[in-house]
Design goal:
With about 425 residues, the protein is α/β, with parallel strands linked by helices. It has 13 helices and 16 strands. About 35% of the residues lie in helices and about 15% in strands. Helix 6 links the parallel strand 5 and strand 6. The structure holds 4'-deoxy-4'-aminopyridoxal-5'-phosphate. The site of 4'-deoxy-4'-aminopyridoxal-5'-phosphate has 14 residues, from helix 5. It is found in: Cytoplasm.
Length: about 425
């Protein structure tokens, strides 16, 4: 074996996300990553605008996280969590309870965002079982996205395309028109009316409302009004429906608040975290719930929460997550995110003037360019790489979610390259 990445083997044998094995799209071989730069095998350096899908909030090859991983490796990389516990899991849980909205104080550690959502759905079902109520369905927002496992797929927008293939196999859920008002538009009461109507009619069957607070990510990178979230929480209370906040993408500062729920000052009953939890180093996720939910489940007929993955509370991942949260808290992350927002605003302004572009949007360290039509993914990806940046468009969207440590010049370069890519006549 040589150090060279065998691209032919990759094409023939290695499945990539949402891709065909017979006609795989081109893949760029990355040799290493450090700070906000990916280094390709041919030596070309790319400024990374994606943070590996929201995850690497501190950038790559981060000293404090490397140290935490090395140190933990000397102790133990993994032990089963059944009947055993350890410092990394307890330390991480304490930090999560401390930094998440008050009232979420029970922590279930799993290994991916989708599983964190599965756990949340199971918590909600088991909670209502324990209350003797037949509430087994969920309501979610159109354009919502919550992961790729079966329970998670069942609460994704069925018309969004991603999971429509599985329609007949998925649990039947309720879907409600998504919020129409953007984050900074004046609030209008009718935005919440569809949810109110649906809950009024069906609340007796509904265990929980699941939503991505403030940012609908994979469903279009839309930033909706905080008042929607506040009123959704009130409706959940009124109709005896739990609220599950999926902050797998938005958690850990991305929107300018530590958690997006804080934009509306609400506390969900159940909260899902992942991605940035370990600074994007390891596969780890968490589902937190209130004491009310935990006590209900524990007093139900099963008496236990029916979930327990092999890699639950993996010490290596937990130790890195502890280091990542400590690093975040010790850094001026809020100032950094604000500054990124400002730099993105400057960089996106000229892009918004281009003919191909419908609009640009911005919230915290997330910048979005929505085109009138889907971009040619392969072509634009090649253009980006040629111009020294890593940006992965999706349909009509070209978006940036840089690490919080990115400097102004790199943000300006990312925006300038997007401008150049979209400025060509169609
Ligand atoms: N929920 C949201 C909001 C997400 O963005 C994602 C990941 N794209 C998931 C759930 C699923 O997480 P994972 O890919 O880690 O399973």
């Amino acid at each position: 074996m040589t150090d060279i990445i065998d691209l032919d083997y990759d094409r023939q044998h290695v499945w990539h996300p949402y891709t065909s094995m017979s006609e795989p799209l081109p893949c760029y071989p990355v040799a290493s990553a450090s700070g906000v730069r990916l280094k390709l095998e041919n030596g070309r350096e790319l400024i990374d605008g994606m943070s590996s899908w929201w995850a690497c909030i501190h950038g790559y090859n981060v000293k404090a996280l490397n140290q935490a991983a090395h140190q933990q490796l000397q102790q133990m990389s993994h032990v089963m969590f059944g009947g055993l516990t350890h410092k990394p899991a307890v330390d991480l849980s304490r930090r999560l309870v401390d930094i998440t909205p008050q009232g979420l104080d029970k922590v279930f550690l799993s290994d991916s965002g989708s599983v964190a959502v599965e756990v949340a759905l199971k918590m909600a079902i088991q909670y209502w079982q324990s209350q003797g109520k037949d509430k087994k369905h969920f309501v979610s927002l159109r354009r919502g996205y919550h992961g790729d496992t079966f329970g998670a797929m069942s609460v994704c927008d069925p018309d969004g395309g991603m999971h429509s293939l599985y329609e007949g196999f998925l649990a039947k859920q309720y879907f409600v028109t998504e919020p129409q008002l953007a984050f900074d538009q004046p609030w209008q009461a009718q935005d919440i009316a569809p949810l109110e109507e649906l809950l009024e009619q069906h609340h007796q069957h509904i265990a929980a409302l699941i939503l991505e607070p403030i940012v609908q990510g994979a469903g279009g990178m839309r930033f909706y009004h905080p008042e929607y979230l506040r009123q959704a929480k009130q409706l959940c209370e009124r109709f005896d429906v739990l609220l599950i906040a999926d902050e797998i993408a938005t958690g850990f500062g991305r929107t300018g608040k530590m958690f997006a729920c804080e934009h509306a000052n609400i506390v969900p009953d159940i909260l899902c975290l992942g991605k940035g939890l370990t600074g994007g180093y390891m596969s780890l996720a968490a589902t937190l719930c209130s004491d009310k939910v935990a006590q209900g489940i524990s007093q139900g007929s099963a008496g236990v929460l029916m979930h327990g993955p092999t890699f639950m509370g993996n010490p290596l991942a937990c130790a890195v997550a502890v280091a990542s949260i400590d690093l975040l808290l010790a850094s001026p992350w809020q100032q950094r995110v604000e500054n990124i927002a400002h730099q993105l605003q400057l960089g996106l302004a000229p892009i918004g003037q281009l003919e191909q572009v419908k609009e640009t949007r911005l919230l915290g360290a997330i910048g979005v360019v929505e085109c009138h039509e889907a971009v040619d993914m392969q072509q634009i990806q090649a253009f980006f790489v040629e111009h020294g940046v890593w940006i992965r468009p999706f349909g009509k969207l070209v978006y940036l979610m840089p690490a919080y440590v990115m400097n102004d010049a790199d943000i300006a370069t990312l925006c300038a390259v997007i401008y150049a890519a979209l400025n060509t006549p169609k």
